[in-house]
Amino acid sequence: MRTGTVLGLLAGLVFCCHVQAKTIGPEVNEYVELMSVLARLADYPEYCMDLGGGYTEDVDRYFGKYEDHEAVNFMRSLRSSNGVMYDAVMCMAVHLTEFGGKISLFSGTDPSKIDDRWQGVDMDEFLMLLNGFYRDTCFGDFFASHRPFYEEAIRIYKDSVMGLFHENWFSEFYGTEPSEEFSVIIGFCNGGANYGPSRHLAGKNKEVFSINGYMAGKPQFDKRRISTLVHEFNHSFVNHLLDDHQDNVWKLEGPGTALLRLSSASMFSMAYGEWQIVINESVVRAATICYMMDNGFLDDEVLEQLVYEVGCNFRWMPELVVLLRKYEKRQDRYGSLEKFYPQIIKFFENYTDKEIKRISAPM
User: 317 with 309: CB under 8 angstroms?
Assistant: First the structure.
């Protein structure tokens, strides 16, 4: 389908969805900052973007002399031995708390469920070294001294972003009520990276976190940033439709593998090394565009987001958005995205078949 035709279909499928705004307060999390600083000292490129202005300058000035601390060296080894990087660092952060004067895992944490990349790690050794780093660096003092800075950034975020976040849209769009608890965290040492880790403690609801990176001097807290927040929360409604349904896995493994192969360079550059991630990311990104269309974003803003996704080599994004818009218009028939998922499977099957035939055609 040519781009002009797709955009025309998108425009024709736009309709208004009245939702009630609900403010979810953003926060700063000491353990997000702690793990980000450790990753930065351990030379994780994704945590060394130098976009935090005076804050990252303070981090480097204060913690620079600890770059050879045992905990930092341990993090370096985890990156090479276990692939602990990107969101795996944040997955650990949201499972940390203070108990009895020491940093520990939350009560009810199943270490095997934190993230696959932490499997096989000696958790006792890691926590011992982490506590040593926290104590030796007086991390708590650094964190407390920056409280006014954190609070001002949080105030700006609340004023300029959270009023645009409509939680009710998600249950209306997906046809299911959320079983998760949502939280927004600003990752002040995370640069331009954003992550969506989760935590599911025994006997409690699953908690989903949108960790938004901070970039000093950039318009990170304006209308455009809401798409990042929506993207992360979409994952909690989308991922389980594939990950928890073996029939869907069997049906999508072929087209998903083909999709990853057809766009491998771009996907690997974004750390999307598994076909399941590519499928989930595709649906999440398409749903994010639907959110923008339903919640008062200008046509130019929607088009900008769509062009961005295509530029990330999600070339099938226009057609996938069209499919989800058709689902919205026929939601009284399907009831939920879960019941519509066979149509999404068919979409990826057809798309990859056409792409493979097109590429294989003789010149």
Answer: yes
Report the 3 state secondary structure along 245-313: CHHHHHHHHHHHHHHHHHCHHHHHHCCCCCHHHHHHHHHHHHHHHHHHHHCCCCHHHHHHHHHHHHHCC
b/e map 267-302, b = 16+ CB within 10 Å: beeeebeebbbbbbbbbbbbbbbbbbbbbebeeeeb
What would the pLDDT profile of 156-196 be if each residue is shown by its tens digit?
A: 888 878 878 888 899 999 998 776 788 999 999 999 888 88
Question: What are the E-state strand segments in the chain?
Answer: 26-27, 96-99, 102-105, 181-187, 194-195, 198-199, 207-213
Find all residues with CB under 8 Å of 128, minimum gap 6, and list them.
none
**CA triple 213-282-357, angle to 5 deg:** 140
What is the model's pTM? 0.75
